[in-house]
Amino acid sequence: MSIKVSVKWGKQEFKDIEIDFSQPAVLFKTQLFSMTGVPIERQKIMVKGGMLKDDSDWSTLGLKNGQKLMMMGTADAIPVAPTQEMKFVEDLPEAAQAYAESAKLGMGLVNVGNTCYMNSIVQCLFNIPELKDLLASLNPSTQGGGMTNEGGKRLTLAAAELFKQLSSALQPVTPFQFISTLRQCFPQFSQQGPQGGFMQQDAEECYSQLMYSFRETMRNSSESGGGGGGSDPVTELMGLRLKCTLKCEETGEKSQEDQTVYTAKCNITAEVNHVHEGLRIALLEDREKTSPILDRMTLWKGSSEVTHLPKVLTLQFVRFFWKTNISVVDGPQGVKSKILRKVSYPLVLDMYEFCDAALKAELTKGRQAMLKIADEAAAKKLKMSEDTSASGEKVEAKEGEDASMGEASGSGFEEERPKLMTGHYDLVAVLTHKGRAADSGHYIAYCKRDNNQWVVCDDETLGLRTEEDIKNLQGGGDHHMAYLCMYKARYA
User: CA 50, 51, 52, 56 torsion: positive or negative?
Assistant: First the structure.
């Protein structure tokens, strides 16, 4: 339930401000801060029984639609024009230069109360240029022709707006609109603790709901825009297609199922030490289903193969599972526990062995083309080196010339020939978790920028990291460990 009120502050009056009784009072105060510039801690809002507190219970205040509220408080000072002349970065002290350089790493997201799970996912997705382009191309006026998920549409548009803010902001972005829309569309993210604050959530669940919303919105957008019968750009970008073959243990009959998933699972057991081992286990399954021959439930054993690889592959380490604890008083209770085992993952992931025969044939063409390009580059470099030695010119100068010529030649060749997928993927983002449960602890994102620098995104704080730092996120203790990894396809 929600109502609209007006707020008088000094000589100004703000009308039709919406109060959602399902949201905490601090969210209402945040709205007033954006309108007046009065910080939350300075706001004195008169209500029944005294002043409105951050955790006030709306049901006890007796507010009515159209009611006028009085607010007191001093706004922050309005920024004034600089009194000192402009200085260039090169003229600043070393410490100031370092601070200026850090702003080039990107922009952080403010934690508005246990929202690090969402901030980390957003940073990982924002690191995918193709997804940014898809969201930027959305036109709200042309949406909705076949929409059955209006909430998903609003969430997708909110994500597009948040991406736009991250691209142009000069200070950390506060994602109030986005988190509010997420909680409205998926109420599980509105879960509150005993003290009334919002609880920590599972980052993978947030990722899954965002993928669902993006997929449904953009697919229906393409259909309503006449773009050709249900094209799905999100699935083409991030969808992994699998073919599962099931065999009945009693009768030997077989069945086949096709599905599209948005995370490749890495199951973790006592024998798993590397991500490839976990992927193999995840592609095997035992399932109970009805046998048409026996007309009853039987055990079927299944194995899956990849039939289509996406441009961006998301890998999930299945670290969380439900564990039943027996209590004398309350009986059996489920607890979401975490597997801390160390599982190594590569900077370059090879998916070839998990593909079916048809896809392997396509990947082989790409791999052969990649080897051919490498051989041609090596031969050209050797020839340039021999020419340099024969002419007696300096090797350093010729090598520099060779490098630039090779780079230009390579880029021109790639533009003329079609891109071929190789099955190799480069690591571009890692989302980590620290703690013993998915709905507690802390999430952080590590993103690889276009200049090959690794940047850690810890809510509003950003900093540089090395490849060695990324390799050390494999688990094995209570520190941060990889939960989701995003890889980008390498083409020949």
Answer: negative
User: Which residue spans within 435-470 are E strands per DSSP?
Assistant: 442-448, 454-458, 461-465
How many helices and strands, by DSSP H and E, does the chain display?
A: 12, 19
Q: DSSP letter at 232?
A: -
Catalytic one of 185, 442, 447, 485 = 442
Contact 5, 63 (CB under 8 A): yes
- pLDDT tens per residue, the chain (492 residues)? 788 999 999 889 999 888 888 788 888 888 888 788 888 888 999 888 788 888 888 888 888 898 999 999 888 766 566 666 666 656 666 654 544 555 678 999 999 989 999 999 999 999 999 999 999 998 776 444 444 468 889 999 999 999 999 998 888 999 999 999 999 999 999 998 888 889 999 999 999 999 999 998 888 655 554 444 446 899 999 999 999 999 999 999 999 999 999 999 999 999 999 999 999 999 999 999 999 999 999 999 999 999 999 999 999 999 988 776 655 555 556 667 889 999 999 999 999 999 999 999 999 999 999 999 888 888 888 888 777 767 665 544 444 444 333 333 333 333 445 689 999 999 999 999 998 876 789 999 999 998 899 999 999 999 999 999 999 999 988 889 999 999 999 998
Confirm whether 485 is a catalytic residue.
no
Spatial contact of 438 and 425, defined as CB atoms under 8 Å apart: no
Distance CA 401, CA 403 (A): 5
**What's the pTM value of the predicted model, to 2 decimals?**
0.73
Catalytic residue chosen out of the listed positions 116, 185, 266, 485: 116
116 catalytic residue (yes or no): yes
